[in-house]
Design brief:
The chain has helices at about 5-20, 20-30, 35-45, 65-90, 100-105, 110-115, 170-175, 195-205, 220-230, 245-250, 280-295; strands at about 50-55, 60, 95-100, 120-125, 140-145, 155-165, 235-240, 255, 260-270. It has about 300 residues and is of the alpha+beta class. It folds into 3 domains: about 5-90, Arc Repressor Mutant, subunit A (Orthogonal Bundle); about 95-160 and about 265-295, D-Maltodextrin-Binding Protein, domain 2 (3-Layer(aba) Sandwich); about 160-260, Periplasmic binding protein-like II (D-Maltodextrin-Binding Protein, domain 2). The longest helix is centred in the N-terminal third of the chain and has 29 residues, at about 65-90.
């Protein structure tokens, strides 16, 4: 199988054939006239025939050059169209990775307004608890929890990670009145192994809580715990911003007014060098406006 000549030589030939000048071809490609001449000579040696007739002030294609030029020009045109199509497709698809409950309970119900404002941009969602490596994975943006100190990433604070206790009205009717944080220790606390419970009880003034209920549901996301609480299976520690609809509909009731504040927040992140991409700017501006509508002033 024969090998193609060097692409630099083919590119030099295509430009010189199209422009009829080694000098103009060099100017287009950022090379000197001598460099273009050298590349063409390399190509001529490879094909075993002259491709240009050198004249005083210009070059014209030889018979061999005339046969080769249309095919080379078509090949470069097809390459150009292929890369243009790829770029256009990439610019119209926004890939976003987000922590699960933020994505399912907060972001997805609002995404329709983004699609209405930007009908040419499709959003591809990935729900995950892991932190993606933007240098190795094909994501444009991420929504993650943390302190906002990720080198190389632009960060915009979205929501604080606040937690308080919820249960279903049926569950509360079954277990009787709850007036004190200590009353919770006799109830099934969903995912009790999560350290967030200890934070909440410390906030409530109980530094060493000892629940009397046995093992119960352990789950990786607030979405699952919220569904378990609505099903009457126990008391869940949830972020109110993720369950506004359920709270408004009365399917979840805040049991006590104590709210614990985790030392982390939810952040929108993306690589610094991509901050001026149109699709990233569009989503960033839309998302921060949605957060402002929650009554929270985002911080960069």
């Amino acid at each position: 199988m024969s090998k193609l000549p060097p692409l630099t030589a083919i590119r030099a030939f295509e430009a010189a054939a199209r422009l009829g000048s080694f000098t103009q071809a060099g100017a287009e490609l950022g090379l000197t006239q001598a460099a273009i001449s050298y590349q063409v000579k390399q190509l001529e040696d490879r094909v075993g025939a002259p491709l240009f007739l050198r004249q005083a002030r210009k070059v014209v294609l030889s018979e061999a050059g005339k046969r080769l030029a249309p095919a080379v020009a078509e090949a470069f045109q097809r390459l150009t169209l292929a890369f243009d199509a790829l770029k256009s497709s990439d610019e119209n698809v926004l890939s976003l990775t987000a922590v699960s409950t933020f994505c399912s309970n907060w972001l997805v119900p609002r995404l329709g307004t983004f699609q209405m404002a930007h009908p040419d941009i499709a959003v591809r969602l990935d729900m995950s608890t892991r932190w993606v490596d933007f240098a190795r994975e094909e994501f444009d943006l991420g929504i993650r929890s943390g302190r906002g100190d990720w080198p190389g990433l632009a960060t915009h604070r979205l929501l604080p990670l606040e937690l308080t206790v919820f249960a279903s009205p049926e569950f509360l009717a079954r277990v009787g009145p709850i007036s004190d944080p200590a009353d919770l220790l006799r109830l099934p606390l969903l995912d009790w192994t999560d350290n967030a419970w200890r934070l909440w009880f410390r906030t409530a003034g109980i530094p060493d809580p000892q629940p009397s209920s046995g093992p119960n549901i352990m789950a990786p996301t607030q979405q699952i715990l919220g569904n378990a609480a609505m099903a009457g299976q126990g008391v869940a520690l949830l972020t109110p911003a993720f369950f506004r609809g359920e709270i408004a509909a009365g399917r979840l009731v805040q049991v006590l007014p104590v709210v614990a504040r985790e030392p982390v927040d939810y952040w929108l992140v993306y690589p610094q060098e991509r901050r001026n991409q149109r699709k990233i700017r569009a989503f960033r501006d839309w998302l921060l406006e949605q957060v402002r509508a929650e009554g929270i002033a985002p911080q960069s």
